[in-house]
């Protein structure tokens, strides 16, 4: 009887070991064959309020900004919950840069420089235009800071760029600006 129990125990233990090893191999195989996930920007949601990237994509005046976000692989970052405030230069603002600047920045070898410029346009938190204070300095996601000027007529300038419109989004605020902000 002891011998039968001993044999049964060894058999059961062996079966457990084999089944664990088999599952480990199956899970390893499944994990290695899985494709990487696309990130937050791949989530399709036509019901909720649009986020910063969705608003920019829908804007006919921000095609250069959207192309720059894609080239810098910064779309997922601005699709996340945030909250963020983005100073969004128009296509005309990008066109005002010296000839060849945008074309150079979107090259893969300049991705870090482009990302730094884009991050200089991003504040962490929601800042509405009516809450800006003349002379206020706010830190950017790039690590530098921008200076705000509130004129007597209520016009807001950020580092000299005029805020020409604002849009509330599901993950923050967009302030459309007429110039590209460049970090020092």
TrEMBL record:
The keyword Disulfide bond does not apply. Residues 49-181 form the FAS1 domain. Residues 1-26 form the signal peptide. GO terms for cellular component: extracellular space. SUPFAM superfamilies: FAS1 domain (SSF82153). Pfam families: Fasciclin (PF02469). Keywords: Signal. InterPro entries: Adhesion/Biosynth-related, FAS1_dom_sf, FAS1_domain. The keyword Signal applies. Coiled coil: none annotated. This is Exported protein. It comes from Mariniradius saccharolyticus AK6. The lineage of its organism: Bacteria, Pseudomonadati, Bacteroidota, Cytophagia, Cytophagales.
């Amino acid at each position: 009887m002891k011998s039968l129990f001993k044999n049964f125990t060894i058999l059961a233990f062996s079966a457990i070991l084999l089944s664990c090893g088999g599952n480990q191999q199956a899970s390893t195989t499944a994990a290695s064959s899985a494709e990487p996930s696309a990130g937050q920007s791949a989530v399709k949601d036509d019901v909720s309020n649009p986020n910063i990237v969705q608003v920019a994509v829908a804007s006919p005046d921000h095609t250069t900004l959207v192309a720059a976000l894609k080239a810098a692989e910064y779309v997922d970052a601005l699709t996340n919950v945030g909250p963020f405030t983005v100073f969004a230069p128009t296509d005309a603002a990008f066109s005002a840069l010296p000839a060849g600047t945008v074309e150079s920045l979107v090259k893969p070898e300049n991705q870090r420089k482009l990302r730094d410029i884009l991050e200089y346009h991003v504040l962490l938190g929601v800042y509405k235009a009516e809450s800006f204070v003349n002379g206020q300095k706010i830190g950017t996601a790039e690590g530098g800071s921008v200076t705000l000027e509130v004129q007597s007529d209520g016009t807001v300038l950020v580092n000299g760029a005029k805020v020409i419109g604002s849009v509330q989004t599901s993950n923050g605020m967009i302030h459309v600006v007429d110039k590209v902000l460049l970090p020092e």
